[in-house]
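Blackboard transcription, Thursday session:
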Amino acid sequence: MTNQEIARLFRNVSAAYSIKNSKKYFFQIIAYQKAAEAISMATSELQDLYKEGKMQEIPGIGATIRSRLDELFRKGSVSHFNAVLKGIPEAVFVLMDVPSIGPKKAYKLSHELRLNKSEKAIEDLILMAQNHKIAKIPTFGEQSERDILKALIEYKKGMGKATRMTLPYAGEVAEKILTYLRKSSDIITVVPLGSLRRMMATVGDIDIAAATNTPEKTIKHFVSYPYKERVIEQGLSSASILTSGGVQIDLIAQPPESFGSLLQHFTGSKDHNVHLREYALKKGLSLSEKGIKKSKTSEKIKQYDGEEKFYDVLGMQWIPPEMREDKGEIELAIAHKLPDLVGIKDVKGDLHVHSSFPIEPSHDLGHTNIEKMTILAKKLNYDYIGFAEHNPSISKHSKSQIYALVAKRNDHIEQIKSKIKSVHIIKLLEIDILSSGKLAVDEKCLELLDAAIVGIHSSLSGNKKEMTKRVLAGLSHPKAKILAHPTGRMLNERAGYELDFDQIFDFCKKNNKALEINSWPQRLDLPDNLIKEAVENGVKLAVNTDSHDVSQMSLIKYGVATARRGWATKNDIINTLKHSELMEWLRK
DNA sequence: GCCGTTTTCGGCCCGACTGTTTTCAGTCG
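(Written on the board underneath:)
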């Protein structure tokens, strides 16, 4: 069973508890939800951790759940779960994926309308809604029937929560509505928050906070957004709309004096806020988006116009948004020991760009010539730029032809070097690791390079053991210094191949290899959780853009943000070194 | 069912919005 399957099972168990008796099982419901969340975010397969006796490493899994998992892995099912899930139609769990339908509504609908075929549950329920069967069910009415029908149709179209946007796309959607909101004179400030501010690789919906002295006016302006499909909800201080592109946008409006509390609240993450509020409670304080009050008394709430003050009142350092995932940052902030995260100004060069030099590559050639890209590197205040075109294709060239092409590119680089002195140019190549583990260029050709970036670009389907062996073989050559886009994931397209990262980290540490943080918006690879593990293991990283066009070199900000999400400091990143130090590291 | 620089027992974040059962349950973030 995969982590995602187990997480789904746990969510179903939680829902079943909530259907059967949500008061009695209140804490079990939370516990299974939390465990499901932790499992779906885990970087190792639970089944592997089980075999290694390391399941307690996952937060939220205690003695009881561990024994349930033990039974699951030994027998393939858990008798206790079967008892809890008994009598609950499968359709319930299908309907629960639809926004606004939770466990209770899903159960009532499935039960009352006898939705037995789970694979047809959505279609069947749409028909029932159209025939006005829902409104007749006690506690439902005509309005909720209409709302459910809308939600079902949108869900079927793939609108709403089903798909997550890439970070830059979300940024554009946000910018468009911010521009609109700023036209309203009663709005003092508007800022995008949530996962966008935390710079998550993908963003589910857009969260916006507005400072205003007239919240109702602001809300009215917001729900009049011309590009909206419909208003999901609208209250006195908050509202949600769905855009015609299927993106949900949530807005909360507060007066400027409590804006700091609102920023903190709406940035999240949920886990971070829950943990922060639990910590505050122990100090006798109760936190909300409105401010901070003493718990258990009716004392007036204290408001904060800035986020720093809010954290300061709790005796903590201000926590960078990228860290707010409840991964230990709260404890460090209390101890005033937060790491000094790498910033965009620390980056001294890009080590992975593809020029248009006709190297007859195995994969995409870049669109911009070496000179133009070098000039932009200078404008970005870089100390150096590393050209890493794909190796010439091995099916179309002989070894000597490959050598000649690389030598020719190097000659061209030398010409540019004599023209542009203010930026160092590094001679790299992005070389395929073939399925045999061998590199796609030979020893003689490798000698032409300062170093090589190696990566997997074909035959992605091997198992974890094979792929790990292949990667380590590829990295073994002394010239191979950076592993390109290590997991091979493409967001919203493919998960990437599986690697044994314990082995990879160990190898990289011992042999001075770096793992790439590829800034390409659909990659952001290494992913943040693995960056954090790499940093903990003392593995060096390289933040690169993989640009195929000069315009893409500014995407470095997304790579840096991902590095920050993995708690990387300047010292963890090789391309924060100045040129002479970097060259020394590449030769090590 | 989890968890611990106030607890191994007794706690467990906080608030907004919606519809329906007019005081609250369900859902969401």
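Lecturer's comment: The longest strand of chain A covers residues 206-212.
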